[in-house]
Amino acid sequence: MEFTDEEQNLIEAIKSRGLDDPETNAKFQEWSLKGEEEAKPDGDIALHIHRALFYRAAGFSEEAWDTLNAVRVRAAHEKPELLTKVEAVMDAIEAGDSREKSIE
After folding, report:
1. Cα–Cα distance between 91 and 72 in angstroms, integer?
2. Contact call for residues 54 and 7 (beta carbons, < 8 A)
3. Fewer beta carbons within 10 Å, N or C terminal of the chain?
4. Helix 5-17 to helix 22-38 angle, to the nearest 10 degrees?
5. Number of Cα atoms under 13 Å in the Cβ half of residue 62
6. Tell me: the pLDDT tens digits for 32-81?
């Protein structure tokens, strides 16, 4: 998974200082809102996949898995054509594959 330089810096800050650090938390909230504002009308499922992979990279595996499970349910109901891709990302994570991809 490739992250922007800004995302990579935020991941490192979360890993080193945690989300309890006010500055890191503020940057995380800003990143989260920015992603939601930039999401294409049908791209919010892809946004949540990216967010889950970000959580995983930052060391929040449980949050990543919970996000992916929610996206899988949503894709099954709203975007069945993305369900296989969501499950492939989940399978890659479960197998420990560091090359999992976001949904474009």
Report:
1. 12
2. yes
3. C
4. 150
5. 0
6. 888 877 766 656 788 888 888 999 999 988 898 999 999 999 889 988 88
**What CA–CA distance (Å, rounded) separates 67 from 23?**
24
Angle (nearest 5°) at CA 84 between 2 and 91:
60
Residue 99's contacts (CB-CB under 8 Å, 6 or more residues apart) are: 1, 92
Q: How far is CA 12 from the centre of its chain?
A: 15
102 and 3 in contact (C-beta within 8 Å)?
Answer: no
Looking at residue 42, what is its pLDDT?
57
Handedness of CA 19, 23, 29, 33 (dihedral sign): negative
Across the range 21-31, mean pLDDT stands at 94
Tokens of 5: 């330089």
What pLDDT, on a 0 to 100 scale, did the predictor assign at position 85?
86
With a threshold of 0.90, does the pTM exceed it?
no
CA distances in angstroms from 29 to 19, 85, 86, 104, listed in the order given: 10, 27, 24, 23
